[in-house]
Amino acid sequence: MPDTQITRPLFDQLMVPNYAPLPMIPVRGEGSRVWDQQDNEYLDLTGGIAVNALGHAHPELVKVLTEQAQKLWHVSNIYTNEPALQLAQKLVDHTFAEKVFFANSGAEANEAALKLARRYAQDNYSKDKTEIIAFNQGFHGRTFFTVTAGGQKSYSDGFGPKPADITHLEYNDLAALEAAISDKTCAVILEPLQGEGGVLPICNQFAIAVRALCNKHNAIMIFDEVQTGMGRTGHLFAYMGLDIVPDIVTSAKALGAGFPIAAMLTTTKLASCLTVGTHGTTFGGNPLACAVAGKAFDLINTPEMLAAVKQKEILFRELLTHINDQFSVFKEVRGAGLLLGAVLNEKYQGRAKDFLLASAEQGLLVLVAGADVIRFAPALNISDNEIKAAMLKFKVAVRQVVESA
After folding, report:
1. Where in the cell is it found (predicted)?
2. Among 3.40.50.2000, 3.40.640.10, 3.40.50.300, 3.60.20.30, what is the CATH number of 72-300?
């Protein structure tokens, strides 16, 4: 094969066109900084979309991965393995869960949760107890089942007949839920903070009501914590900051701090219906992934780390307020911990990507959550000085967008 110049145009030549990556190509990272092919440095407030919870190339994670790579890479689920059992034990010890199912992505964890809910209802109630209630602007993955459960039609339309019996309601709308839920409902799936849907947090009273209504109608409450779990909100899982306990919690993204892994957490009672052969995965529980995730869990699940996330949220909000005082571009800043969304006001509606591109020009990587929200999901161990430096770059980017309006 002749030498090929690895540049951004090669993406358009070789890759399926379902992504539109930025012109720069990151080639290495350290902590909350990355460098591109031209050795330009960027401050990273994306965290790989809330994945790189401990930044890039964390030395302790590199060490664990290297050690495990010299032992055992893959054995399949014909066997179990030590890293998987060690990680499962940590998850059970520090959450409500009694049983764990490992997968590779948040979509797969949510697929497992939805299948479990349907299966449990079929085994224990009636064949017509199949309705799943989900919420508009929710996001649960890209498999056909999970993307249909997600409340964004632009992601699920155009692929033919969708999985049936999924009802979508307005998030935080208790009256709508009370009117819709019934004894035919097998599950309610929701995020404690809608990430892709605009960084919109759940109302605590709504969460309590969902729990009560699920109890009343023998429905399973599924919390999709793919984006909010593993310390992102200042709690190990976001449900811990609410006055409820779900029946199922799904985790991915930050669980492996950059290495692909996901988990569905549930009770022994619910898990009992997934008997041998009813569900599976080739790579779930992979020793490499579980070894990295086990170390990441130890580093994230400390009082110091979780308290620091809440303190860094305060700093972010203060600095974003100062920027807004000068430029008047945000209607509000919402979210929790280090998953924050700056919501654009009426004047700048639809221009979130302009702020993203202007930030990249300043050496700052940020996210969007729809067309009207700039999203920040940095590493949990980002330093205060890096946050301040990032917000100085963001201020310049905001000025650039404002002056071009």
Report:
1. Cytoplasm
2. 3.40.640.10
Residues in the annotated binding site: 106-107, 139, 142, 224-227, 281-282
Closest to 201 measured CA to CA, from 10, 335, 92, 293: 335
Q: Per the annotation, where are the binding residues for pyridoxal 5'-phosphate?
A: 106-107, 139, 224-227, 282
112 close to 103: Cβ distance less than 8 angstroms: yes
Q: How far apart are CA 231 and CA 45, in angstroms?
A: 16
CATH 3.90.1150.10 domain range(s) in the chain: 8-57+303-404
The pLDDT tens digits of the residues spanning 343-368 come to 999 999 999 999 999 999 999 999 99
What percent of the residues of the chain are helix, what percent strand, and what percent coil, each to the nearest 5? 40, 20, 40
Architecture of the domain made up of 8-57+303-404: Alpha-Beta Complex (3.90)
Q: What is the pLDDT of residues 40-86, one digit of tens each?
A: 999 999 999 999 999 999 999 999 999 999 999 999 999 999 999 99
Tens of pLDDT, residue by residue over 153-181, are 988 999 999 999 999 999 999 999 999 99
Q: Which residues does the annotation place in the binding site for N(2)-acetyl-L-ornithine?
A: 142, 281
